[in-house]
Design brief:
The chain is an alpha/beta fold and 412 residues long. The protein contains twelve helices and 15 strands. The protein binds (2S)-amino(hydroxy)ethanoic acid (HGY) and manganese (II) ion (2 copies).
């Protein structure tokens, strides 16, 4: 089968999608269910329909663009990723898996290939945690990892519930209907930029992911007493930001001293109240992200953080509340899918590197209901979640070609 990836079309679609953004180019901001996100969704759905795919979306806005196979009852071969982007991000994270997936399907259709198993491109809702505080909202609901009741408790920064926001965005229907059963998908493959430096450093064009790290995120509320920056003497203070500073350094040292380089922890958000130069911080909110490829090691970091918080609370006479937002297990990718991707690489004499994904992805949750694997392409300096995120056109086209071959091998 000779496949032609229309590279120019793919690259121009990546640029067009990047134009749906609430940030100045080259940065991309596309928060789930904002008008910008809805415009981007409409544009993508039109591209899928143009490609002859049947498009549907579920109650939480996951989009499914299906190429019907000759055996409609056979389990489906899925591919896809996300198009939402955190503030001030780049234009490739998630997008390469969505538009590359669409291009892989178009190339297969163009080549005259006809699948037995239907092939489905998925665009998951809210892979980023930006709006509702939890990542992979769409794939968590789809895989049954998050219950509809728990999802209904989620609110955004304005206090709007998920139901209010999704209804306003035009997604009615019951969340109970989002979950798909084990066996619905025969396989799920996600093409994604590496979001790390290894492929570029090793000059290897493709990575095949064998394991996806286990993410956890926590919200921490620290409350002390505020007061006048001049009038309150140091011995009388209960400064919430100084307590937060101890916690931030404690989380860093817990990750650094775990005994493995795979343990990472980040305090990505710090909100200080009242936020005036001459007022002692009385309240601080921290958002904490902890990951590891090993569940036990990750959970030791969480326990250590909780113990440190208790000690700091007693020492500084501040109250510290920790809310665990999510603490997910890692995912092992399926050997059969890894082998299918490796075959496609060998077919094109392309070198590949077996890898771990330190970023989480929708594949982490699709792995709860189907055999999955991920295909990585290099990104310059490993940069991601920043405007200078970049993947070379050759790498994007190569990844799309291998994805197309893999989809054919699994659905034929
Ligand atoms: O944070 C992550 O790992 C993903 O990029 N949302
Ligand atoms: Mn991301
Ligand atoms: Mn991503």
């Amino acid at each position: 089968m000779s496949l032609t990836i229309d590279r120019d079309r793919l690259l121009s679609e990546i640029d067009t999608l990047a134009s749906f953004s609430d940030a100045e180019a080259p940065a991309v901001t596309r928060i789930v269910f904002t008008p910008t996100d809805l415009q981007a969704r409409a544009w993508i759905k039109a591209r899928c329909e143009e490609a002859g795919l049947t498009v549907r979306q579920d109650a939480v806005g996951n989009i499914f663009a299906r190429w019907n196979g000759s055996e409609p009852a056979a389990p489906v071969v899925g591919t896809g990723s996300h198009i939402d982007a955190i503030p001030n991000a780049g234009k490739y994270d998630g997008v390469v898996g969505v538009l590359g997936g669409l291009e892989a399907i178009r190339a297969l259709r163009q080549s005259g290939f006809r699948p037995k198993h239907s092939v489905e491109l998925l665009i998951f809702t809210s892979e980023e945690p930006t709006r509702f505080g939890i990542g992979c909202l769409g794939s968590r609901l789809l895989s049954g990892t998050l219950s509809p009741d728990a999802a209904r408790k989620l609110t955004d920064n304005d206090g709007a519930t998920l139901d209010e926001v999704r209804h306003r965005a035009g997604f009615g229907g019951e969340l109970e209907k989002v979950k798909l059963p084990i066996g619905y998908y025969q396989a799920f493959i996600e093409l994604h930029i590496e979001q790390g430096p290894l492929l570029e450093r090793r000059q290897i064009p493709l990575g095949i992911v064998a394991k996806i790290a286990a993410p956890a995120s926590l919200r921490v509320l620290i409350e002390g007493s505020g007061g006048h920056a001049g009038g309150v003497l140091m011995p009388d203070r209960r400064d919430a930001l100084c307590a937060a500073a101890e916690l931030i350094l404690a989380i860093e040292s817990a990750a650094r001293s775990s005994g493995a380089v795979d343990t990472v922890a980040t305090v990505g958000m710090c909100e200080v109240f009242p936020g005036a130069v001459n007022s002692i911080p009385s309240r601080v909110r921290l958002s904490v992200d902890i990951r590891d490829t090993d569940l036990q090691r990750r959970d030791v970091v969480i326990r250590t953080f909780e113990a440190t918080s208790k000690a700091v609370s007693a020492k500084r006479q501040v109250s510290i509340q920790i809310e665990l937002l999510n603490a997910d297990a890692p995912a092992d990718c399926a050997p059969a899918i890894i082998e299918a991707i490796s075959q496609s690489c060998r077919q094109h004499e392309l070198n590949f590197l077996p890898m771990v994904s330190r970023a989480y992805h929708d594949s982490l949750f699709m792995a709860r209901i189907a055999p999955v694997a991920m295909l990585f392409i290099p990104c310059r300096n490993g940069y991601s979640h920043r405007p200078d995120e970049y993947s070379h056109p050759d790498d994007i086209a190569r990844g799309t070609l291998v994805l197309a071959e893999t989809l054919a091998a699994l659905s034929g």
